[in-house]
Specification:
The chain is α/β, with parallel strands linked by helices and 409 residues long. It is 23% helix and 26% strand. It is built from seven helices and 24 strands. The chain has a five-stranded parallel sheet with strand order 5-2-1-9-20, with helices on one face. Strands 11-18-12-13-14 form a five-stranded parallel sheet. A hairpin with a 2-residue loop joins strand 21 and strand 22. It starts with a strand and ends in a 19-residue tail after the last helix. The relative contact order is 0.14. The mean pLDDT is 96. Bound molecules: flavin-adenine dinucleotide. The site of flavin-adenine dinucleotide has 35 residues, from helix 1, strand 2 and helix 6.
Length: 409
């Protein structure tokens, strides 16, 4: 038997298991997925939990239900990978051997990495919405909040779904307006970027949106520490921003098992070939999703496009052929803009998000970089698509390579 081991049964790992299982001969192949929990969360749903649109139970499913019957799920913590011996050590000391390895262990937040961020005020006047407990806690805080200065602070890049902090602010604007207390709430974004987003055209459009919605932006802010007593963020240059409620997007890193394996960069992301998705220097190891060090967005939609490329390249390597599929950095994301509307961005390594239309037979076109109700419905529909199409490894009517159709340069 040949052994394919997939580390992480989240968005990327589950999708990949579902793509390979029907193709690999089960008499010849053993597919194993390892994940430390049985709970699979639809993470884009964390954005909506603080506003009461979803409850946690609306966005979680048992992990094994989404894996193919031909794959074995081991629920255990991964301790480390020994890439020289082609083995993976689990926390319970069992050893798994592999012929091919796919690392899909994702990215996670680390508030404790910033001085003063994770202290006794964490979960009270400071909170995240990137974890199940954080988003639920923030929901409880917002329910009773009567106004003041709400600051969304991005500690450093990269983060998962780089538009989520903006979406949070847009939804907060909508939420406090509906509660009739918007005039008592000061909304602010504090970011290390020079604008609202990582790419100039989208940054301009989203920056205009923030301005129109009276959400102020403090750009180029390198967060050095948080002073909980004084309720202020302090930058490396000693500039200060005060808050009453801090919604933090803490530093993201790859999982600690990557560091223990000696396979990560300074943030524990795995150095990966940006086109083939092979781990640098390890021909039988591939990396998928948020675990990579690629300059593409850390997003489920990106993991989906990558999985199509990886499928081709994995089969090429197994069959001794040259890898020909190339990932172009394609990313596609709906952006909630509040009041039942949303925007859509579609871009890749080379092409920044452009205005125009995004054709989608039967449903679209969706408006690019422009608000519309259909984009909002697209975002809400994404939850169904996630569980029923994306995770199942099924084809979407959107190519893995970015298309210029409908875009205006
Ligand atoms: C608030 C928020 C909003 C988002 N919005 C969007 C959006 O609108 N659109 C979009 O496309 N994406 C969005 N994303 C991003 C998307 O959820 C992630 O990019 C996607 O889940 C990445 O998939 P992954 O498989 O790489 O990582 P994950 O899905 O995080 O999976 C990693 C898995 O590895 C397991 N694991 C890690 N380390 C170990 C270990 N040592 N032992 C055992 N198991 C381990 C974890 O338990 C986990 O199940 C959002 C994310 C957040 C947090």
């Amino acid at each position: 038997m040949r052994r394919l081991l997939i580390l992480g049964g989240g968005t990327a790992g589950t999708m990949m298991a579902n793509k390979v299982a029907p193709v690999l001969d089960e008499q010849e192949w053993q597919i194993t997925v390892v994940d430390c929990t049985e709970k699979h969360y639809y993470q884009p749903g964390f954005l909506f939990v603080p506003f009461g649109t979803y409850r946690l139970q609306d966005i979680v499913k048992p992990r094994h239900q989404y894996l193919p019957s031909g794959a074995k799920l081991i629920v255990s913590e991964i301790d480390r990978i020994d890439a020289e011996k082609n083995t993976v050590l689990l926390k319970d000391q069992s050893i798994l051997k592999y012929d091919y390895l796919i690392i899909a262990t994702g990215a996670e937040i680390h508030p404790e990495m910033t001085e003063g961020l994770k202290d006794e005020e964490w979960g009270k006047s400071k909170c995240d919405f990137y974890t199940p407990s954080g988003s639920e806690r923030l929901g409880r805080i917002l329910q009773n909040w009567q106004g003041g200065k709400l600051v969304v602070s991005i500690t450093e890049m990269p983060i998962k779904c780089p538009v989520a902090p903006l979406e949070f602010l847009f939804l907060a604007d909508s939420h406090f307006t509906a509660r009739g207390i918007r005039d008592k709430v000061d909304l602010q974004l504090v970011t290390p970027l020079s604008g609202a987003f990582t790419k100039p055209k989208a940054s301009q459009v989203l920056g205009d949106f923030l301005e129109r919605k009276k959400i102020s932006v403090t750009p180029d802010f390198g967060l050095a520490r948080v002073d909980s007593k004084e309720k202020k963020l302090v930058g490396w240059d000693e500039t200060e921003v005060g808050y009453d409620l801090l919604v933090s997007i803490p530093t993201h890193t790859g999982n600690a098992c990557i560091e223990r394996s000696g396979l990560g960069d300074e943030l524990n992301f795995v150095p990966t070939n940006k086109e083939t998705l092979q781990a640098n220097g390890l021909p039988n190891v591939f990396v998928l999703g948020d675990a990579t060090n690629l300059p593409s967005s850390k997003a489920g939609a990106v993991a989906h496009f990558q999985a199509e490329i990886l499928m081709e390249n994995f089969l090429a390597v197994v069959e001794g052929r040259e890898m020909r599929a190339r990932f172009d950095g394609h990313a596609n994301c709906f952006i909630e803009s509040g009041f039942g509307k949303g925007l859509l961005i579609d871009f890749n390594y080379e092409t920044e998000p452009l205005p125009g239309e995004f054709p989608l037979p039967g449903i679209g076109p969706f408006t690019l970089l422009k608000e519309s109700s259909i984009n909002h419905y697209g975002k809400l529909m994404f939850r169904w698509v996630y569980w029923n199409v994306l995770l199942r490894g099924m084809e979407l009517p959107i190519g893995s390579a970015m298309s210029m159709a409908g875009k205006r340069a």
